Amino acid sequence: MARKSLTPQMENFATALNCMDGRVQLPVIEVVRSFFGVSYVDNITEAGIVKYLSDEIGSIQTKSVLASIEISVSKHGSRAIAAAAHHDCAGNPQNEENQKAQLQRAVEFLKAQFPACKVIGLWVGDGWTARCIIPTQR
Ligand SMILES: [Zn+2]
User: Fold this and answer.
1) CB neighbours (10 Å) of residue 20?
2) What separation in Å is there between the alpha carbon of 93 and the centre of ligand 1?
3) 35 by DSSP, 3-state: which?
4) How far is the CA of 136 from the centre of ligand 1 (A)?
5) What is the 3-state secondary structure (H, E, C) of 101-114?
6) Which residues are within 5 Å of ligand 1 (an ion), measured at CB?
7) Which residue in 44, 59, 70, 136 is a FRET match for 13, CA 20 to 30 A apart?
8) Which residues share a beta bridge with 122?
């Protein structure tokens, strides 16, 4: 599926909002590529990123994440965003139930911010595989 050219191809990018945790990078990128059928995933990370898209929306991290998404959308033509949360998150040490609730609010927040984009929510469990638990509504 990967193209030989590294020149950006419009609509061949999706955007992942992921924790910085090294255990979740490859699982999330793989699922985002296959779910949206894209070659490239722009990867935006913060420690426990979903909290900055739900409970701490006024934070400097939120502003930074939104600015990076804007670049992914406007320069790379991304129309698909995946937010991810995961088991054993050091940056957002909440239980699974709370993290999934934050993820739901993060997806709603992102849909409002980027209405032209599809938005999904991914959960990475203790087996370190990513799965979509909040599918796109559009
Ligand atoms: Zn984490």
Assistant:
1) 14
2) 8
3) helix
4) 23
5) HHHHHHHHHHHHHC
6) 19, 21, 89, 91
7) 59
8) 84, 132
Counted domains in the chain? 1
pLDDT tens across the length of the chain (138 residues): 555 555 656 679 999 999 999 999 999 999 999 999 999 999 999 999 999 999 999 999 999 999 999 999 999 999 999 999 999 999 999 999 999 999 999 999 999 999 999 999 999 999 999 999 999 764
How many angstroms is it from 63 CA to the middle of ligand 1? Answer: 19
Q: Tell whether 4 is covered by a domain.
A: no
Kindly state whether residue 2 falls inside one of the protein's structural domains: no
User: Ligand 1 centre and the CA of 76: distance in Å?
Assistant: 26
The answer to whether position 45 is within a domain reads: yes
What's the 26 CA to ligand 1 centre distance in angstroms? 14
pTM of this structure: 0.91
Q: Does the residue 1 lie in any domain?
A: no
